[in-house]
Amino acid sequence: MSLTDTPYVNVAKLKMIFDVEEPKEPAFIQELLEDCRQLIELEPKNKWPLYMRSLVLMEYRPIRSHSEIVDNLKLLAESLDTKRVELYKSLISRQKLNFSIREQFARLLSHESDELVVRYSELTSLEGVEFLAGLVGSADFSGNQLKEIHRVVLPNLHSLTVNENPIESMK
């Protein structure tokens, strides 16, 4: 294999972007999470402690706390902070995209397969997929909530499947 056959991939950067490894957690984080939990119990209708807890979990425990993060964001979107429903949907979408990419990360890096499959994951955006430019040749985003398909910057992409999405525009 020549050098031109293997695309350059900044593995450390990809691991950070897609939360493949959780960062070292500062000592105060556990206390902050506990304080948020107590505030949530005291004021269950207050969106701020739940939002703060979710942000901290996304930053420091995205793998271990994936389900809690998604559940928290859904609760915020559906009942505690309905004015920002699109923000929460976007955050959920990114968490689910990252989760799916984490599951496929080793295979994509090994060049065993260039197929990225993220089906029925409630994705509202493909934001972030462009960082996999040198790795993805085929992508399947069927059954999500994609309304717009912006130009996906994946130069090696030869197959894109977006069936069963409520697509309104393609740019």
TrEMBL record:
This is Uncharacterized protein. It comes from Caenorhabditis japonica.
